[in-house]
Amino acid sequence: MIDRADTLIDLHCHSTASDGTDAPAQLVRNGALAGLTAMAITDHDTTGGWAEAAATVATLGTPFALIRGTEFSCLYRRAGEAAISLHVLGYLYDPQSPGLRSERARLRQSRLGRGEAIVAKLVEAGFPISWDRVRALADGGSVGRPHIGRALHEAGVVGSVDEAFSQLLSDDSPFYVQKDDSEVKAIIALIRQAGGVPVIAHPWARRRGPIIDERALVELLQAGLAGIEVDHPDHAAQDRLQLRDIAERHGALITGSSDYHGTNKSVLLGAEATDPHSLQRIVDLATGVPPLYSAPARHSGALGDGLPGE
Ligand code: AMP
Ligand code: ZN
Ligand code: FE
Ligand code: FE
Fold it and tell me: pLDDT tens for residues 35-68?
């Protein structure tokens, strides 16, 4: 049996390839320093951080497994109702798979037009920021609202990125502009086709806007969704109990993750964690790319008896 105390697994972390503030190499090193034994890099709509993170794992002196992944921006639509924004994590999929690859490119392109439109509205209202500065802050990564939040913070408009969200960037703000997100069932199917494992991120993060109900969650599980991120900083205790129950009743795997974004958010690496048996299920289901192990992990099998070496 795997002793839970021997593992600390965080399967949802962002780097500068999207809206985190740690470069991919730093993210992996910080993960190891925080005592993580496994970490997923899951930037928004990109695999941009994968290569640098992978190269860094090879240099670590502690047992560590890297799970390559992406957080996809999606919409759930039901006839006669407003579309609901949600995020799906795709783990260990083949980055060359053409359907998903073109969808990632389309999503990143949509982030550019939408980011520019939000900034134009803010500039129009007199806030001293610019699209050039926001793009410079994103530095080639997937552009997101946290970059606009940083520009607002830098300009002295708000005291923090969090304050930028609560005052100017939330979904119900007059400055908000939607991006052209993917249809969630299409993304689930594309992740599966690419040999990956789809897990819904923070489905009941209520403070971010409308959430999907249990019926929709079950519909997505029937459409190929493999798991539910139950333990997430934005989930209330009662919601976690109910999500866990839904997952158990439908045979879905359960994850827990910090959704770390460096200094763009206050949550720390490993603040929420995944059981090693859930990670094992993800690894067993995936046929896209393998986990990447540091040398001590390969030699000692220290991640637990369930986690194979390469
Ligand atoms: P976007 O992808 O551009 O729609 O921006 C959403 C991203 O902003 C998500 O990754 C969230 O994690 C992040 N976010 C949401 N609320 C906040 C907040 N209050 N402070 C910082 N980041 C946030
Ligand atoms: Zn983010
Ligand atoms: Fe998310
Ligand atoms: Fe995230």
Answer: 999 999 999 999 999 999 999 999 999 999 999 9
CB-based burial label for 133 (10 Å; 0-12, 13-18, 19+)? middle
Is any atom of ligand 1 closer than 6 Å to the C-beta of 44?
yes
**Which band of pLDDT confidence, cut at 50, 70 and 90, is reported for residue 306?**
very low
Scanning 34-156, the segments in alpha helix (DSSP H) are: 50-57, 98-124, 131-138, 145-154
**What contacts 144, CB < 8 A, 6 or more positions away?**
18, 19, 44, 111, 115, 138
Tally of residues, the chain: 310
Q: Which long-range contacts (CB under 8 A, 24 or more apart) does 27-34 make?
A: 27/53, 27/260, 27/262, 28/53, 28/56, 28/57, 28/60, 28/64, 28/66, 29/56, 29/60, 30/269, 31/64, 31/269, 31/270, 32/60, 32/62, 32/64, 32/294, 34/8, 34/268, 34/269, 34/270
Q: How far is the CA of 6 from the centre of ligand 3 (A)?
A: 28
pTM value? 0.95
Give the whole-angstrom CA distance, residue 89 versus residue 167: 28
User: End-to-end alpha-carbon separation of the chain, Å?
Assistant: 20
Ligand nearest to the CA of 263: 1
Q: Which atom of ligand 1 is nearest to the CA of 144?
A: 3
